[in-house]
């Protein structure tokens, strides 16, 4: 149970609720302290003199300004134990926020281009997730392709990853991340087609900085099961209606959106409008070590800024379980756990 307390009773209630996290880049959970510890352990030279100097550089103006520092931070990851330590540190924080199910992204190309094998990456992450599972955190892994790299690079990564999808049942899907502008989903239609043919789950970042047209491409060309971010859908009423009707969920990351200047401040966030239109919005942390908070801090920031009510917070929590890639039986158990907590007597808060 979390020890975090908050003066707002609804935020406090959300903090204690069993919840999911469906949009977390594991490399984005690397805290500056761990970056420096791993740099020392692995003899990697960093461009920053101290933990404070690194943290001071976390003043982002857009997605690219963040990605440059995020990839530099990941350069300290070399050995299986490094990936284990990073992942276990995230799991500890997630457990403290009462996350009971996490679907975690990783970026193999960030590591393979430095000579680290994809086997090393997945072995370390999966071993930590198996250990965390014994402590009440279930999880899935989603392999993301870096969209600023070529289609050929993504296809080669797919080929290298194929045996791992067999070996690690936790690896259930593929995603698409990194620099969005100028790299539309259509660039990766063929590799997503191959993943779909294998029966994998499909997600893609779209409509974070990119236009609604990229969300249409993610839906129509990549045939994604969820859209990561997707906040710019609000600019296109027909798209909002389509998302609401289809219940294709958006994995929204409020602190990320304000830190990367997608919105000027949290009161400008369009999450409540999307909810009001019936879109299946979920709350997530994206890159918590870089954006000033883990999932509970994302709940507190958005609940306070948009003055969300009890029913809206319940809906966000519930959407997080409804949109997860678990079996129907597992989903029912997760929702029952939430209902038990939210209403005390176990009846659904919205029905
Ligand atoms: N957007 C795109 N790529 C990313 C992000 C993000 O928010 N975080 C890590 N890779
Ligand atoms: Zn992301």
TrEMBL record:
Family annotation (InterPro entries): A_deaminase_dom, ADE, Ado/ade_deaminase, Metal_Hydrolase
Keywords per UniProt: Hydrolase, Metal-binding, Nucleotide metabolism, Zinc
Cofactor(s) in the UniProt record: Zn(2+)
Active-site residues, Swiss-Prot/TrEMBL: 208 (proton donor)
Gene3D superfamilies xref list: Metal-dependent hydrolases
Bound cofactor: record note: Binds 1 zinc ion per subunit.
Similarity section: Belongs to the metallo-dependent hydrolases superfamily. Adenosine and AMP deaminases family. Adenine deaminase type 2 subfamily.
Organism: Paraburkholderia eburnea
Stretches assigned to coiled coil: none
A Gene Ontology molecular function term of the record: adenine deaminase activity
Principal EC category: hydrolase
Protein name per its UniProtKB record: Adenine deaminase
One GO term of the biological process aspect: adenine catabolic process
Function: Catalyzes the hydrolytic deamination of adenine to hypoxanthine. Plays an important role in the purine salvage pathway and in nitrogen catabolism.
Annotated Zn(2+) binding sites: 23, 25, 205, 286
List of residues binding substrate: 287
The protein's Enzyme Commission number: 3.5.4.2
Swiss-Prot/TrEMBL catalytic activity: adenine + H2O + H(+) = hypoxanthine + NH4(+)
GO cellular component: cytosol
């Amino acid at each position: 149970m979390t020890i975090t307390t908050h003066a707002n009773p609804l935020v406090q209630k959300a903090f204690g609720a069993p919840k999911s996290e469906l949009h977390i880049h594991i490399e984005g959970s690397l805290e500056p302290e761990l970056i420096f510890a791993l740099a020392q352990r692995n003899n990697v030279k960093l461009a920053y003199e101290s933990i404070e100097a690194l943290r001071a550089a976390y003043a982002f103006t857009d997605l690219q300004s963040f990605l440059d520092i995020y990839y530099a931070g990941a350069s300290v990851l070399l050995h299986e134990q490094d990936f284990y330590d990073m992942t276990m540190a995230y799991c500890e924080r997630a457990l403290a926020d009462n996350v009971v199910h996490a679907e975690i992204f990783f970026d193999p190309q960030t590591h393979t281009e430095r000579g680290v094998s994809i086997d090393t990456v997945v072995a370390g992450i999966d071993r930590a997730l198996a250990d965390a599972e014994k402590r009440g955190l279930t999880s899935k892994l989603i392999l993301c392709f870096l969209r600023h790299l070529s289609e050929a690079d993504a296809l080669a990564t797919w080929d290298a990853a194929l045996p791992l999808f067999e070996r690690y049942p936790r690896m259930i899907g593929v995603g698409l991340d990194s620099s969005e502008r100028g790299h539309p989903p259509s660039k990766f239609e063929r590799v997503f087609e191959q993943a779909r043919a294998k029966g994998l789950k499909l997600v893609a970042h779209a409509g974070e900085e990119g236009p609604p047209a990229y969300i249409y491409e993610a839906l129509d060309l990549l045939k994604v099961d969820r859209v990561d971010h997707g906040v710019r859908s609000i600019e296109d009423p027909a798209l909002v209606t389509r998302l609401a009707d289809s219940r294709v969920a958006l994995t929204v990351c409020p602190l990320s959106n304000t830190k990367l200047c997608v919105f000027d401040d949290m009161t400008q966030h369009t999450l409540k409008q999307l909810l009001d239109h019936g879109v299946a919005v979920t709350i997530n942390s994206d890159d918590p070590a870089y954006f000033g908070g883990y999932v509970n801090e994302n709940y507190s920031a958005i609940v306070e800024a948009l003055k969300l009510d009890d029913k809206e917070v319940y809906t966000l929590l519930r959407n997080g379980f409804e949109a997860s890639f678990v079996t129907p039986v597992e989903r029912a158990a997760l929702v029952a756990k939430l209902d038990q907590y939210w209403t005390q007597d176990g009846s659904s808060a919205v029905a």
